[in-house]
Amino acid sequence: MTSFPISLIVHGGAGSWRPGSESDAVASMAAAVLVGRKILESGGSALDAAIASAVALEDNPIFNAGTGAVLNLDGFVEMDACVMVSPGGDFKTARIGAVTGLQRVKNPIIVSKQVMEETDHVMLTGNGAQRFARVMGHADYDPVTADRRADWQDKRSKLENELGSQHDLQPDSMGLPTPSQFKLRSFLKTHPEFAGGTIGVVARDAQGAICAATSTGGYTMKLPGRVGDTPLPGCGTYASIFAGASATGTGEYVIRSLACRQISDNVERGMSIAEAVDAMLDQLGHDFDADVGFIAIDANGVPYGNHRTRDMPHAYFSGSSEIVAKMRVEK
Fold first, then answer.
1. What predicted TM-score, i.e. pTM, was given to this entire model?
2. Domain count of the chain?
3. Which three-class secondary structure state does DSSP give residue 59?
4. 2 an active-site residue?
5. Most-buried pick from 21, 29, 195, 270 (CB within 10 A)?
6. Which residue in 148, 112, 154, 116 sits closest to 133, CA to CA?
7. How far is Cα 235 from Cα 245, in angstroms, rounded to an integer?
8. Residue 152 maps to a domain
């Protein structure tokens, strides 16, 4: 049986990390890679390795996924996650599982995997996703940390002060702001630390399968019910026989561009994985001036990550190489 080089890459979200938090973020990236690497080196699947690395990041409160996910406008957490595995072995087509708007669960990425393996569906949302999680044995769990709650209160106050002075910020009868406050992009541009982040993993196993897994709480102060790019196959998460990719940053731009699918398509057309990712970043920069980043692995097991933000903590290994972990790609 042919054995392929194993590899794995993770990211912890594109954006601007607060001073003093960088070393913890980078160390956590390396630790998450190590979790997945041990599985791959023991002959485990890309799926199991990607899920294990993603769980390690969901359980780490410094990242915006699982425990530590950010709060929406109404002050509660709605999480999105997706896992996708390329065709291979006994599976002739790609396998996908996703959840959106999931509340009060510790590990949304595991629920996504169970949607893929235990149902005939691709995606479950909201109350249906939560009910499914309970049936699958996920206990009630509050992912909100004290730091995230305090952060939300500070940001809600600043949002009201800044937008309220211009637009008379008054909630409607359902508790939402008036329509003029539905578009918060200019506010988020002024306060990039308000944007959320995402965790993502791409892995390739010795059988040649590629798996991409992505999980997020979205971005702080998002409208309740907002769905980002993370759970949408081809947008924030994608895996094919050519490449797998996971996105982070402003999800609305990633959705409009089917960005992760385009990375795979570019590799299929003959680009290297680095060229494919950089071409997508250039396109998103030209079209939207988007704050985004990507990690990816191609069919040869080559990992690559790049971003258009100041920071994107990430780490990777390939074959027998040492784990490389860093906060940003030096331009």
1. 0.92
2. 1
3. coil
4. no
5. 29
6. 112
7. 9
8. no
